[in-house]
Amino acid sequence: MPELPEVEVVRRGLQRWVSGRTITEVQVLHPRAVRRHIAGAEDFAARLLGNRVGDAHRRGKYLWLPLGSTDSSVLGHLGMSGQLLVQPEDAGDEKHLRVRVRFDDTLGTELRFVDQRTFGGLSLHDNTPDGLPDAIAHIARDPLDPAFDDDAFHTALRLRRTTVKRALLDQSLISGVGNIYADEALWRAKLHYERPTAGITRPRAAELLGHVRDVMNAALVAGGTSFDSLYVNVNGESGYFDRSLDAYGQEDRPCARCGTLIRRRPWMNRSSYFCPRCQRPPRP
């Protein structure tokens, strides 16, 4: 599933190629793509028509585009395989094209939502006074947000009575961090994924946050992490941060720090990758 860096790359593409344009046509080609819009596909399409698209925003793994002078926004989540592509109007349709949006200008491009597995989707929501779609008001700020509160994060860590990787993936505590970047940040911080949060000191929490930010910023520079053709930016280009991963996906390869072979363990229907020497498990 795309994580914060991948979603941010898409947001930047939407800001460049879609923001400021006025919608003249919306085609919903598969109802599941707008299933979170309770009023249905026809209502979704009708309410978008004639609206000027505002600046593209992101909170964690969610994207949204405000609509004109209304107090509503189109909210998007890419799920496992969703793609928001800016394509020439005369380009052939993708096999898994779900939604098409056209504009009133002469740029000759349209916005397409493509989703092979249909776990992602688009929906229309009212905005809160803070400008967030109400459906994601509960999602915490992400670590790249200038308003992210490091001290509040540490306090919440101590109170959660959980383990550190579970905390990093808790979107009500810190958003945008998924399995890949959690493993990478924990490797850099020399923390085992099952380390209890109750014992993490304020300096240790600050160090961990620093590593989370560093790995995400490095991934942004590389255009995100692409393990297959499903994650691409709005121009259909893949990221290449997978070439720089130190832990995730590196099972049986030498740790870049100490040379010990990286291990993989099943974890919450996923996998955790770690160095058994650098990231020693907590004592029972």
Report on this model:
The chain has helices at 4-17, 41-48, 150-160, 164-168, 179-189, 202-221, and strands spanning 23-28, 57-59, 62-66, 72-77, 82-88, 97-103, 109-115, 121-126, 263-267, 270-274. The protein is of the alpha+beta class. It folds into two domains: 4-136, N-terminal domain of MutM-like DNA repair proteins (Alpha-Beta Barrel), CATH 3.20.190.10; 150-274, Helicase, Ruva Protein, domain 3. The strands form three sheets. It has a four-stranded antiparallel β-sheet with strand order 1-6-7-5. A four-stranded antiparallel β-sheet has the order 2-3-4-8, with helices on one face. Strands 9-10 form a two-stranded antiparallel ribbon. A hairpin with a 5-residue loop joins β6 (97-103) and β7. It is elongated.
